[in-house]
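Protocol step 4 of 6.
Sequence for CN hydrolase domain-containing protein (Saccharomyces mikatae IFO 1815) entered exactly as in the expression construct, tag removed. Do not edit the line below.
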Amino acid sequence: MSGKLKRVAVAQICSSANLSKNLKVVRELISKAIEGQADVVFFPEASDYISQNSLHSRSLSQKSPQFVQQVQSSIIDLVRKNSRNIDVSIGVHLPPTEQDLLVGNNRVRNVLLYINHEGEILQEYQKLHLFDVNVPNGPILMESKSVQPGKAIPDIIESPLGKLGSAICYDIRFPELSLKLRSMGAEILCFPSAFTTKTGEAHWELLGRARAVDTQCFVLMPGQDGVHDLSDPTWEMHHHVSAPSKSVKRESWGHSMVIDPWGKIIAQANPSTVEPQIIFADLNLESLQKIRNKMPLWNQRRDDLFH
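Step 5 output, structure tokens:
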């Protein structure tokens, strides 16, 4: 592979309410990403768990710090075993901090962690825009009931692929975040997601390609895929609730992809399988620079009018 190309891996999974099962899948896919010579592997939002409701999420989030530690250990272990470095971007939930609880905020934090090949967490980005919508003929989802919004635009990460800007799922609908990240130097944007099938079918690809063209960045879109197993017998027994009925079915759109700065899809997941999968793409930062030079949007922006 030419030194000018950087290989990225994008993982597609179907998280359940069982964190240890999800961890096993994550570990297997990190291993596959290393075998495929990737420099960084990106996992979707909520890779640790998908819950039945806000009460269930608060309970499961108590196990998330351990899940994160096990991911860190897995990275160190797999890097050593394969004698090849890899960084990992992974979406998880974290429980509220002590400070949150002091002010009566018991909602979880939806975060994207960037973990380097030594198992160190370099960034913890907390999702800014929460998905509170009543989709026509689709689900009513109120993320803000169980999740607290972030308050800070993330710093750009100097990753082995290039300068990386972090975002999560619903953030993709707010172009100002992507434009800000590009202004801060981003060459690559990631949108780890758990899109609903209704909104995914309508807008997933459209939004990814639009953000790529808006910002002249590579766009990475790791998605949750398929019908999630939300059963958690221990929790259900403890809270005297019945197993999740068909009415609380959660299904995610999948269709993970990598898009270049010209808006072209250069890699995408196989839609005919529900098995966890990894897609690879080689990012050419020289071609990104050519696109930016030929169409110098950032020199032509009317900053005198738009702030």
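Step 6, annotate. The two ends are 41 Å apart (CA to CA).
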